[in-house]
């Protein structure tokens, strides 16, 4: 019989999507009080994965990933997802009856073996975490790198994204070794 144990702490990250670098920087600045000091940033990549956000957010979108220094419990993921939705709400636009986001903030975490995303939508490959939030393993670490699954979003398959998470994993493992 297994004995329940506390999980190892994890490293939080966010994926930011916005039509301008100014909005990316503004949203990023709003995250430090929630997640702590920023540890690493990816480059800024043109969003060409899909036109899913075009009607709501416009064209010329940019993607950026940011990881945070403090390690924390993975059980915080639902709380973080709800808080980032609140930050997104600060960037809403309205035109008559229509409204939408100017910034998309998708939080998740990584540990030594996986990258997990938070979602408000259920799907067959997602597990319920509580507080109306689901978790999705989107990358698995093996043979020296993170690898996508069949259900992994296109932008998490980009070589630049895989490299970002690989570098964040190295920082994470150093923190664990030091006792964070």
Helix content: 25-40%
The end-to-end distance, rounded to whole angstroms, is 30 Å
Major sheet:
9 strands, antiparallel
Uncertain segments are none
Number of domains: 1
Determine the number of helices (DSSP H or I, runs of at least 4 residues): 4
Could you spell the SSE succession in H and E letters? Answer: EHEEHEHEEEEEEEH
Strand content: 35-45%
| Arithmetic mean of pLDDT | 96
What can you tell me about this protein's structure?
The protein has 180 residues and is of the alpha+beta class. The protein has one domain (10-178). It has helices spanning 21-35, 54-57, 77-89, 159-178; strands at 10-18, 38-41, 45-46, 62-72, 92-95, 98-101, 104-110, 114-119, 127-130, 133-142, 145-148. Helix 1 (21-35) crosses helix 3 (77-89).
């Amino acid at each position: 019989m297994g004995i329940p144990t506390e999980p190892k702490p994890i490293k939080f990250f966010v994926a930011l999507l916005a039509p301008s670098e100014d909005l990316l920087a503004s949203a990023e600045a709003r995250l430090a009080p929630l997640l702590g000091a920023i540890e690493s940033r990816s480059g800024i990549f043109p969003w060409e994965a899909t036109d899913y956000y075009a009607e709501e957010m416009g064209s010329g979108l940019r993607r950026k990933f940011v990881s945070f220094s403090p390690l924390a419990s993975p059980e915080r993921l639902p709380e973080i997802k709800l808080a980032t939705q609140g930050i997104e709400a600060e960037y809403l636009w309205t035109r008559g009856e229509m409204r939408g986001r100017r910034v998309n903030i998708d939080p998740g975490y990584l540990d030594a073996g996986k990258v997990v995303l938070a979602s408000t939508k259920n799907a067959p490959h997602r597990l319920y975490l509580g507080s109306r939030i689901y978790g999705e393993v989107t990358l698995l670490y093996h043979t020296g790198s993170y690898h996508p699954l069949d259900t992994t979003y296109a932008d998490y398959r980009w070589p630049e994204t895989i490299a970002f998470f690989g570098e964040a994993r190295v920082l994470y493992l150093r923190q664990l070794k030091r006792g964070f």
